[in-house]
Amino acid sequence: MTTTVELRSRIGNRWVTGEGAQVQSWSPTHPDRVIAEGRAAEAVDLAAAVSAASEAAQAWARLPAASRGAYLARASALLTERADAVGSELASEEGKTLTEGIGEVRRAAAILDYFSRVGDHNAGSVYNSPRVGERILVTRRPLGVIAVVTPFNFPIAIPAWKIGPALAYGNTVVWKPAGTVPLLAVRLAEALVDAGLPDGVLNLLIGPTSLGSELVSHPRIDAITFTGSTRVGRAIAAQAAARGVAVQAELGGKNAAVVLADADLDLAVSQVIAGAFNSSGQKCTATSRLIVDESIADRFLARLVAATDALRVGDPLLEQTQLGPVISDASRQSLLNAIDAADRSGVKRLTTRAPRIADRDGHFVAPTILDCTGTDHEIWDDELFGPVLAVKRVAGTPEAFAEANRGEFGLTAAVFTRNLGEALEAIESIDTGILHINSESAGADPHVPFGGAKGSGLGPKEQGEAAQDFFTHTTTVYLRGGA
Ligand code: UN1
User: Fold this and answer.
1) 372 belongs to the catalytic site
2) Does ligand 1 lie within 6 Å of residue 443's CB atom?
3) Which residue CA neighbors atom 10 of ligand 1 most closely?
4) CA dist 223 to 189, 271, 398, 443, Å?
5) Per-residue pLDDT tens for 85-126?
6) Which of 89, 100, 190, 250 is flagged as catalytic?
7) In the CATH scheme, what is the homologous superfamily, with its name and number, of domain 5-251+456-479?
8) Domain map (residue ranges) of the chain
9) Mutation to probe ligand 1, out of 255, 284, 383 (largest number of atoms < 8 A from CB)
10) In CATH, what class is 255-437?
């Protein structure tokens, strides 16, 4: 991409140039290249956006759900039409490969398509009454104005799975996307605006992190949906609890892949590589810990390491590239520092390529596998958010599952086995929001719940029917005839 795109916020019925400082997004591949620029929204813009969302809320809530869904269906069709162009912008701005970028735009379209049809789903329930001539209905109402705060790593899919259900269930939205990926936010908002969404129903604020903090503490916000770090999510939740505002927070992960003695090793190699290194490991669902039975560890790790050393790292827009850069220089530095610190304390690097790729400007980190067996280094427990896989060898299934349960997180896990009994035991003993048996730890379908256990999440899960639990509240109606 050679031309710089102009960034604007969406407030009420207008695309506006913000009142704040100049902001840019930069290519993580060519860090001197500006992808998009404009002026940040400021306090006055935020106030205008919240007012616009409040004013639009009642009429939007009263529209038939099918009519609300029709806007989402049109936006989904527009995104599908634009998938190649927007996917390429995604790869340029965020750094995941072109295939992943286009795939993510299509995924966002599929998510909006799913939520376009929830008007046909169950909208409540009916109970018998202990009294004559009465029924009890449990109906659903929207919450009002939702603050949506989203991370950089899925710049269009995560916003789609928050904004889609927020709107489908009758809420209006003020959205603050990550400062590193504003262009993709504009592209999703454009699809919804071009679909004819009524004014004020979706508002987008381009700007720095501080703007997100102001948004979530605004007194006219009725609920907050957030994806990001456990630290920030808990701070938002604590503050929101003091004001009685509901929070849905998708937080960190340190997800294990467990390869048991009887696993299909070819399958496990390919799935662990996908889980650990797709999107350069920048997924809260990425495989960042590998727990492998010692009886097959040498064989398995030899294959895994060879395949990892062969991954092609480079410009995400080139077809042959399998791993792009990480999002920023700060992220690259902190990954390299963590690897160095592990190195110094006896953790063994199994991959042969040096993690630091010195001959390129971009924020590249080579995919790296570290053997932590017999050590107690924090790299086993801390979320790094990059292409780094920590390994431990264990003796048997109980030790493997105990190790998978270790630590503060519980977002996803993957278990590789051909034994149904072991698979059932995994379901019983691993405390996680998502469990994959014989597939990689990342990925999520729109029609089923997504979210974590333990420190990985707060509040109702996302997507599927679970989204209704967060984006609506119930009204219990004791219904009698008037006579
Ligand atoms: C996926 O695994 O495809 O931030 C989605 C994240 C998650 C989404 C993961 N909330 O990485």
Assistant:
1) no
2) yes
3) 284
4) 20, 37, 41, 26
5) 999 999 999 999 999 999 999 999 999 999 999 999 999 999
6) 250
7) Aldehyde Dehydrogenase; Chain A, domain 1 (3.40.605.10)
8) 5-251+456-479, 255-437
9) 284
10) alpha beta
